[in-house]
Amino acid sequence: MSSLKPSAVKFIKLGYGGEWEAQCLSSGTLRFGYHETPDDLCVRGDWEAVRELWIGLRNGNGGTATRDTDQIRAFYTTGPDSVFITFSGGYLYWCQPVGQVEVLDDGSRLRRTLCGWHNRSLAGVPLTMDRLSGHLLKVQGFRGTICNVDARDYLVRKINDEPLPEVSAAIAAEAAHKLAIVDLCRLLTWQDFELLVDLLFSTSGWRRTGAVGRTQKTVDLELELPTTGEKAFVQVKSDATVASLSEYVEQFGSSAAYARMFFVWHTGALPEHTAIEGVTLLGPTRLAQLILDSGLSRWLREKVS
After folding, report:
1. Residues 66-95: tens digit of each pLDDT
2. N or C end: fewer C-beta atoms under 10 angstroms in the chain?
3. 278, 252 in Cβ contact below 8 A?
4. Any idea where the Restriction endonuclease type IV Mrr domain is (predicted)?
């Protein structure tokens, strides 16, 4: 699907308390109440007559009747060049309405959608609510059924996988920072590099049970995860090769003392994403990310300065 450029973006509640959510999301449809509204008036586009009807139903409250009419009109007239969104099960869902409104036996209204509802971006990224801006999420507090989405540009960017310029700048800055972190790691002595690795694991919940550095022939660091009792050992290499990794993997495989092995290095052409059962590889790229996430980049800078 090409990038979306919707003419309008609207939020819709699928039934009172979400009673129609599951059915609509699974069937790729939109459902709407306002049962008392004559369908023929809406099809003709006689919105003033619809408003007059709702003024009566709202006991003469013209402002509320106008809002009712706007929502009914939006459901009937919003086309496939627009987007409807809703929220369910921790996800944002979006769709494009198509076709004519159908009146169901209970008086509620139904519309079809183009390719159903989606809870992922065009590139397949899940649109989970925990990763969405509060500016968008606040639309859930709307007391009616259909309204315009104020954070329209933000939403369209999320669906199209287009980061804000500020986000792109932050990503570029982080990438440069990680490259600098790797360069700083290469300035450490092997003792300080092992200490850094020890600090990394301690910040992630692992507890050291053996001394740092040459406690055994093949072990630089012995660890235990207190929450599970899992035991692991870490082999730290400044400059790693495929041959050195193979040697330690073989020794790990012959030992029953540890459930996992970590192999950590900052220099060398060893592929970081090689899959080895029970072994986690932490090379320059992953190592730099861990240092950044754990807040140890300042420690690293001060250690080598």
Report:
1. 999 999 999 999 999 999 999 999 999 999
2. C
3. yes
4. 188-259
